[in-house]
Design a protein that fits this description.
mainly alpha, Globin-like, 147 residues
């Protein structure tokens, strides 16, 4: 996807809902990620989607409601099947593509930056490797903060 000229920002829960649904629609058709989500994690989409909407609303708007544990869920998944750098690259690439496909602005930028920090943190602390923003993302100005 390419960024839409004149796109609005991720300004409310409805926009976050659309982003999360768009993103996971891509995931379920992705040859790399679908087996991870569908066969290994056996994700219950009717629970996962609303939970992730709550998560991103907390991240972007400081909204209450999210009660999950992102690290525990991914630690469990990694225990079932090792998460690789390529898995992280693909997840992040799809996320950025979905954000850029419909939104632009401070919240959209925050959604991408947080996703990069989250992925780097999970890779380091849970998956056992260093992950950095892929070259394509770095060319778009996405980088991890030093430290």
């Amino acid at each position: 996807m390419t960024e839409i000229s004149g796109a609005g920002d991720l300004s409310d829960r409805a926009a976050v809902h659309d982003l999360v649904v768009d993103f996971y629609r891509e995931v379920v058709f992705d040859v790399r990620l679908e087996p991870l989500f569908g066969e290994v994690a056996e994700v219950d989409w009717s629970h996962h989607i609303p939970n992730l909407i709550d998560y991103w609303c907390r991240i972007l708007f400081l909204a209450p409601g999210y009660r999950g544990d992102v690290m525990a869920a991914h630690r469990h998944l990694h225990g079932l099947r090792s998460i690789t750098s390529e898995d992280c690259d693909r997840w992040f690439g799809l996320w950025v593509s979905c954000v850029d496909g419909r939104w632009a602005g401070p919240h959209a930028a925050d959604a991408k930056a947080h996703a990069a920090r989250l992925m780097a943190g999970m890779a380091k602390h849970l998956f056992g490797f260093t992950w950095t923003v892929p070259v394509a993302g770095a060319r778009r100005g996405l980088t991890l903060p030093a430290g």
